[in-house]
Each structure stands twice: as structure tokens, then as C-alpha cells.
Design a protein that fits this description.
2 strands; mainly alpha; 10 helices
Amino acid sequence: MAENSVAEAISIYQRTGDSTLGSQLILHFEGLVFATCRTFYIDGQERDDLLQEGRIGLFKALRDFQPSCGASFTSFAVRCIRCQCISAIKAAHRCKHRILSQALSLDVAIYEDNERASWLDTLIDDKLRTPIQALITYEDYERCRLLFEHIFTPYDYDVFLSRLYGESYELIAQRMGRNVKSVDNALQRCRRAILRYVQGNDDLDIATMSHFFEIALKLHSTEESAIARAS
């Protein structure tokens, strides 16, 4: 479907509830469901179960989307799909914040029952990324960046990024004119700020965080390469 025809089809579906049209729209956005659900995991359930949760989220997006909200349907649908997946994961695990409690370390295990799967494993080769996945990744990075700049102090955010870039506590402290304890306290505040945020919100999850890590590291690498060339 062309973009205009998709928007019109969504509007018609909302007015009429046409099940055939609804099925066509679900099929049209199936790739978005796969891309959004890719990094979620529910222990003890089949992959198709999670995809079905994603389709439920897409159905809710088709039902509730309003163009006047200012967001594109794709962005709105991604949020609905994620929220649905997160709700399913919470119901299955009964442990809301286990994943994000160690989110500042890229090499820690994502799941307690799978020590081999780390945050680094969630970073995707650009050559394997579809346009939809690329769009989602960069939207997640920008959303996380704005969120972290809001919930962290400037000093804490600088420490957070420096640690993400692989700098040691000692190097960060030396560069910022602080002591190691101050750096550690800043990182602890960042962890607590993230956990407080996810207690009241469902839009910060493993996929969003891994996309932020990925783009932040890529931008840092590009910046370092530019500095090296200039020197």
C-alpha cells in the first residue's frame, strides 16, 4: 500500500471495524511486528507467542491511532507493540526490573538463565538492518538521549556516557577533576534514576536501551576517528 492509502485504510477500519480490512493492515505491518519484537524474550514460551503479543499491540495501534496526536503511525504502533510485549513479559516473569538493573554494563547477561547473551549481542550489523529497523533504532536513540538528559544531571550524564565508552573510573575521575568515589556515586544515581523511571513507565525496555548503546557507541567512534584524522 502507498502511504496515503494506508492512512485512509486505517481511518476506514476505525470507522467501520471491517475485519477483512483489519487483516490486510495487520499483514501489511507484519514486518514492523517482527522488527519490534526481535529483541524481546519470554522464558518458557515459543517465539510465535511473543509475535502474537506484538500483533495484539499492532491491533491496538490500528484501533486507537489519531493523526492529530502528532506522531506517525509507525512510531505509535512501535510503542503499542512494545507496551504489549512488555506487559506479557512482566506477567510471565513477575520481575519487572531485572533486565535494567545492570543496564550500565554492556557485557553483563541480559537474562539470568542465559549468561552467554549480553547487551553487546543485541547490537546489529548495519548490513543486516532493514530500513524499518534502522528507523526504529535511531528513534530509540533520540528518545533515550532526551530522557537521560532530563532524568540525569549534566555531570551524571557525562559520567554515564564516559563509562559506556569504556573509560575506567580512574580515567573519568582524572578527566573531570573528581575522585573515584564521586564517579561511582554518579553511576549509582544513574541506575536509580533509570529504575525509578521504569517503575512508572513502559516505554524503556531492553530493545530501546540496546539501540541507545549502539548509536551512542557508533557516534563516539566516528567522533574519535574524526579527531584522529584532524591530528
